[in-house]
Amino acid sequence: MNKTLTQSMFCIGLLALWEAASLLKLWPPQLFPAPAAVFGALRSGFVDRGFWVAIAASLNRVVLGYAIGCTIGVPLGLWTAHSRFASDTFGRLFVGLQRLPSLCWLPLAMLWFGLTEKAILFLIIIGSLLSIAISVESGLRRIPGIYRMAGQNLGARGWRLAIHVLLPASMPHLVAGLKHGWAFEWRGLISGEMIFVTLGLGRLLVLGRDRNDVSQIFGVMLLISLGWSVDALCFRALERFLQKRWGVVSA
Q1: Structural domain containing residue 60
Q2: Could you tell me the CATH number of the domain that includes residue 225?
Q3: I need a labelling partner for 13 at 20 to 30 A (CA). Which of 132, 150, 156, 251 fits?
Q4: What is the distance, to the nearest Å, from the Cα of residue 201 to the centroid of all Cα atoms in its chain?
Q5: Which of 58, 83, 219, 249 is nearest to 159 (CA)?
Q6: What three-state secondary structure class fits 30?
Q7: Domain count within the chain
Q8: Average pLDDT per block of 10 residues along the chain, 251 residues long
């Protein structure tokens, strides 16, 4: 069966189950809204442009934080992969810190930066940077030794070897790290926006709670979950390119 058709049928089935649960009134409508109520809230939010403003604000923060996370994370991964000292010290530190939920960084962000945009940006960067650095290091360490030997035989040394030989060979793992970094940074973004009084999708969740508007909460959650579309449009396209170019695909 066609993959797109399978996914479409699955989504339709979920909507049918959702509608059935709302019709059976297993929970009060003010706690578990019907799909029509949620889509109505989405329509209202887009018509009055409130959702458009929130999406633009959140995407602006995500893109900026992700760019910074990649700019710092990739060189850190290269460094820890090529230095035994860096791997045994900072590499282990990165692994430990990466396991901390984004909310653990929130108190520090507030103390260091106050209730400002910088605090939210810090949460986003931390969410992506560590995952990317760890994946780059892991990918470089899994490269077959013959690649390194071939590069050295052709005269590549040091950073030239890393950039022109080792880094391209580790691309499948790098793409996996970029995907994980994208997912983790969204968690940091929403956590920060729910705490700070600012524009964004996280703030819309708080407003829905304050107004007891469960339909808006469900609608915003659907918008946030659509972050997977970046995975489908960008990361999967890059995976297909890698598979076609080198016969490999990211994890």
Answers
A1: 48-246
A2: 1.10.3720.10
A3: 251
A4: 15
A5: 83
A6: coil
A7: 1
A8: 70 81 77 83 85 86 87 84 80 80 80 83 84 80 72 69 72 76 79 77 84 85 76 71 61 47
